[in-house]
Amino acid sequence: MSKTYQEMIGRADLNDLDAILTVANPDNEGDHHGVPSVFDSRFTWDYDKGARPALTKLYEKAKGAQWNGETDLPWETDVDPEKLAAITQVAFGMQGMDLAGTPFAAWGDKEWLEFGVETQNWTLSQFLHGEQGALLCTARIVETVPWIDAKYYASTQVMDEARHVEVFAKYLNTKLSGHYPVNAHLGMLLDDILRDSRWDMTYLGMQIMVEGLALAAFGYLYQLTDEPLLKKLLRYVMSDEARHVAFGVLSLKEVYEDMTSAEIRERQEFTFEAAVRMRDRFLQQEVWERMGVDAKVAIPLAQQSPYRAEFQRMLFTKIVPNCKKLGLLDAADGWLRQRFTELGVIEFETMVDTGEEYESLDVITSAPAEIDA
Ligand SMILES: [Fe+2]
Ligand SMILES: [Fe+2]
User: Fold this and answer.
1) Is the alpha carbon torsion for 122, 285, 8, 192 positive or negative?
2) Separation between Cα atoms, residue 329 and residue 336, nearest integer Å
3) Residue 198 — pLDDT band, cuts 50, 70, 90?
4) How far is the CA of 62 from the centre of ligand 2 (A)?
C-alpha cells in the first residue's frame, strides 16, 4: 500500500506554498539540537579486507587524497562580499522580469545588491549545516554498516566532512558578512535521515540525496565564481564529495539487489521526500523575511525567473542518474520516474552516474592548472 503525498511530505499538493511556509525552525533552540534515534552499532568479525574491491579502491584513493583546510587554501585572499554576490544574484535573482506592481518595483541596485549578499550568506550557511549533517551521518555509518571495507572507507569520509565543516565555517566567519540558521526544510530532512535506524537509509538520504545535490551545487558555483579562495575551496571539496557519492552508489547497488519490491518502494518514497525537502529549501524563505518581503508574494514571482528555474533543475543532475543506476527510477512500475517527471528533472537520467565519474574529479590526479583555473 503506497503512501499518499500527505503522508510522505506533509501536504497533498506538491506546490502548496502555504504549507511549505508553515515549516519553520523552533524558536529559542539554543546552541544544540538533539535527534533521538535507536540503532545497532555493529561489530564485524570478518576482517578480510578487499571483499568489496570497489570500496577498497575508494578507500585507498581517499587515504592519498587528504588535504589540509588550513594550509592548502589561500586564506590570505581579500574577498569582497559585494563583488562575490554577483553570482547569487544570477542564480536567485529576477533579471529581465517585469516587476511593476510588485514589492520589487521599488528595489534599486542597493536592494538587489543586499539581496545578493544575503543570499550568499544564506547559501554558504546551508552548505555549512549540510556538511555537519554529513559528518554525523557518516560517523553513524562507521558504526552501523556491517562490512569492514565500508567501515574503513566511511572513516576517511568522517575526516573529509570535518574538514568541510571547518573550511565553510572559516569562510563564513572570516570572508562573508553574516550567518543563517539551518533552513527548516533542510533541517527536517537531516533529522529524518538521522532518526532512521536502518543503515542503508543513512546512505540514501546523505550520500545519494544530500551529497548528490551538494556536488551539483558546488560544481555550479565553482564554474561561476572567479574568487580564487572560494574557487579552490569548492574544487577541493568537490573532489571529496564525488568519492562520497560514489561510496553511496557502490554500496547501495549491492544492498538493493537483494531487496523485495516493497522494501525498494519504501526507498523510492524516501528519495522523493528528500527531493521535495531540498527543492523547498531553495525557496530561501529566510532571505525574503530578512529583506522585509512577504515570502508568499516573493516566491511565486521568483519561481518565474528562468535563471532560478534552471538553477533548481541543475541541482538534480547527479541525483537522477545515480537513482537510475541503483534501479530506483524504474522499480515499482516507474513510480520514482513519474515523481521526477513531475519535479521536471527526469531528463538528467542519461547523465553520467557518480560511481563512474568520481575519479575524473580527483584534485590529486588532476593537473594543478585545471584546479586553479
Ligand atoms: Fe562534505
Ligand atoms: Fe561529503
Assistant:
1) positive
2) 5
3) very high
4) 12
Interior/surface letters 237-264, b for 16+ CB within 10 angstroms, e for the rest: bbbbbbbbbbbbbbbbbebbeebeeeeb
Q: Ligand 1 centre from 176 Cα, in Å?
A: 20
Residue reference for cell 508568499: 296
Query: Which is nearest to 183 in space by CA: 280, 116, 281, 253?
Result: 281
- Separation of CA 165 from chain center: 13
Q: Is the pLDDT of residue 369 over 90?
A: no
- List of residues 6+ apart from 208 with CB closer than 8 A: 245, 248, 249, 252, 271, 319, 322, 323, 326
Q: Angle, to 10 degrees, between the axis of helix 184-195 and the axis of helix 261-281?
A: 150
Domain annotation for the chain: domains and CATH numbers: 81-94+104-372 (1.20.1260.10)
41 CB burial (10 A radius; 0-12, 13-18, 19+): exposed
Considering every ligand atom shown, identify the ligand nearest to the alpha carbon of residue 157 and give its number. Answer: 2
Alpha carbon of 44 to ligand 1 centroid (Å): 27
User: From ligand 2's centre to the CA of 296, what distance in Å?
Assistant: 33
Q: Is the whole-model pTM more than 0.70?
A: yes
